[in-house]
Amino acid sequence: MKIDNSTFKAPPLRPASTPQRAPENTSQAAESVSLSSSAAPLQKAETPPVNATKIKEIKDAIAQGRFQINPEAIADGLLETARDLVNSQRQA
After folding, report:
1. What pLDDT shows up at residue 30?
2. What is the torsional sign of CA 43, 45, 46, 47?
3. In the chain, N or C: fewer CB atoms in 10 Å?
4. Does the model's pTM come out above 0.85?
């Protein structure tokens, strides 16, 4: 069976130079964000908080083929995150 796509016409693409319109009701509502005091050190930090030693250990283990992946732990973590997300949206 041959697929004939000569009758299908894709809609024209918007040129990249066309500016996007701003939402019309932006002037009516203003939003504000406030951060807790524990966020202040994170804002001032020049680099993200990482454990370079742990990262090196994991990279070395991967390179040497001795890094063990625990799919059950990954699945459990994903399920827990999904449950937390669902529960937080139910409470909102």
Report:
1. 79
2. negative
3. N
4. no
Contacts (Cβ under 8 Å, ≥6 apart) of 61:
67
Q: Which two tokens stand for residue 72?
A: 């059950």
Q: What is the pLDDT of residue 31?
A: 87
Can you spell out the DSSP letters for 31-91?
Answer: ------GGGHHHHH-SS----HHHHHHHHHHHHTT-PPP-HHHHHHHHHHHHHHHHHHHHH
Q: Is a pLDDT exceeding 90 seen at residue 55?
A: yes
Place of tokens 């041959």: 2
Distance CA 63, CA 68 (A): 12
Task: Check whether 58 has a pLDDT greater than 60.
Answer: yes
